[in-house]
Design a protein that fits this description.
20 helices, rod-shaped, mainly alpha
Length: 265
């Protein structure tokens, strides 16, 4: 193994590539950073003529190994360049530990964009979402409204939980919002009569049986929704609803009245 390594190091062609990597400049250096050899790339990283444009071109490659990416991460140029940090994080082969260390330096909507770029790995997306969620408590309302329109399923679900009417209105129209998130919201501590009614009248969500039941079980639901939803429920669902301990006395009476209409009891 040692003999093979020594032979590789002494190979004239390889030595020529290494020398070129250390001394090239301008357009020639762009060619060098496309070389297949990690040794040549690492040599290029020591070239005094290497600039941000060369590094951005390098980081667009999807075949870089972990050793090369770690070497790029350790460059002073990367620490000084926000764009290089973005390029490093966007590379799907960048090690997770490096991604986590760079994400705090990215702006909020750069994190959002990272979630949707082609080729993003599940780990990168998860890390970006987590970074967004950690910032939500200190994010101003205007930015949260934009997030409600643009963000991922996980982020929109978290925004919905806040129960803020302006956010809720936008979240409900986001195509990435899932029914389970709306159910969690309706069963949580934040909905009030206004926001429950927003869900109940929304054209995308109002006709879903699971959501109708969740609305009717919420103690803050206005009586009008019992008037509108109860006649649509199956008798078995009415009985299940009546057995719920979450109903207020007024709500329970409305359910009993609907059952009596059907059964005469």
């Amino acid at each position: 193994m040692a003999d093979k390594t020594r032979k590789h190091q002494l190979d004239p062609e390889h030595a020529r590539h290494l020398h070129r990597a250390l001394t090239a400049h301008g357009d020639e250096l762009f060619q060098v950073v496309q070389n297949a050899s990690p040794d040549v790339i690492k040599a290029a990283l020591k070239n005094i003529n290497l600039n941000d444009d060369h590094l951005n071109a390098l980081l667009k490659r999807r075949d870089l190994n972990e050793e090369v990416l770690k070497a790029v991460y350790n460059l002073e140029q990367l620490k000084a360049s926000h764009q290089l940090q973005i390029s490093l994080v966007r590379n799907p082969t960048t090690p997770g530990a490096i991604v986590l260390s760079v994400l705090p330096h990215l702006h909020l909507f750069e994190l959002v964009d990272l979630c949707f770029i082609p080729g993003v790995t599940p780990d990168q997306k998860f890390a970006a979402e987590r970074a967004i969620l950690q910032r939500l408590p200190t994010t101003e309302l205007g930015h949260r409204l934009t997030l409600a329109r643009r963000a991922t399923t996980a982020v929109v679900a978290e925004l919905l939980k806040s129960g803020e009417a302006p956010l809720l209105e936008i979240c409900l129209t986001n195509p990435r919002l899932r029914e389970v998130a709306v159910l969690q919201f309706l069963s949580g501590p934040t909905p009030n009569a206004e926001t429950i009614s927003m869900v109940a009248r929304h054209p995308k969500w109002r006709m879903r049986p699971n959501l109708q039941m969740a609305i009717l079980k919420n103690r803050r639901t206005p009586p009008i929704w019992f008037t509108l939803f109860l006649p649509r429920l199956r008798t078995s669902d009415l009985r299940n609803l009546l057995a719920s301990r979450r109903l207020t006395p007024t709500s329970k009476k409305l359910v009993q009245q609907e059952l009596k209409k059907r059964t005469g009891i």
